[in-house]
Write a structure and sequence with these properties.
This protein is an alpha+beta fold and 161 residues long. It has a single domain, classed as Electron Transport, Fmn-binding Protein, Chain A (Pnp Oxidase, Chain A, Roll), CATH 2.30.110.10. Helices cover 25% and strands 34% of the residues. It has five helices and seven strands.
Length: 161
């Protein structure tokens, strides 16, 4: 059963969720049919989700770029807010691909602000300097083709109407 449209996040609420949440979870298809689900830090720009990651996730996305991403917050059902995106990922394989991406520089600055200090300790925001290295350290751009959002705070308003 689809979610009622009245529960969806507005575009401004979606931007706020995506710019303030620290973690996303990405589901990729591993070797065979195994699903690989991993939490990652991320950026949001131009309607795309960016992450810098390594290892099995990169291998999985090279083999099959289909993925699902979940960004959500809060624990209690009446307070849940989130977005689930389905779409295709592109592994930015080298510095040339990174330089050609229209939003990666914005994401580098955004993630430098969001994750300054990394684990809650104070630090000056700085540009995320990560770049393609080795066999599997890469930036990944995820292009959503479908999104579902929800804001369970709106449930009370639906019950009253």
């Amino acid at each position: 059963m689809p979610l009622p449209r009245d529960l969806a996040l507005t575009p401004d609420q979606l931007d706020e969720l995506m710019l303030s949440s620290w973690n996303m979870r990405i589901a990729t298809i591993g070797p065979g049919t195994r699903i690989n689900l991993t939490p990652l830090w991320f950026g949001w720009a131009g309607g795309c989700i960016y992450t810098y990651c390594r290892g099995q996730k990169v291998e999985n996305l090279r083999r099959n770029p289909v993925a699902t991403i979940l960004v959500d917050r809060n624990e209690r059902f009446p307070e849940l807010q989130g977005a689930m995106f389905q779409g295709m990922a592109t592994v930015l394989e080298d510095a040339t691909a990174e330089a050609a991406d229209p939003h990666l520089e914005e994401v580098r600055l955004q993630m430098g602000r969001k994750y300054a200090g990394g684990h809650g300790e104070p630090a000056e925001p700085r540009r995320n300097e990560a770049t393609a290295r080795g066999r599997n350290w890469r930036w990944v751009r995820f292009n959503p083709s479908h999104a579902i959002t929800w804001d369970n705070f709106k449930l009370g308003a639906l019950k009253r109407s």
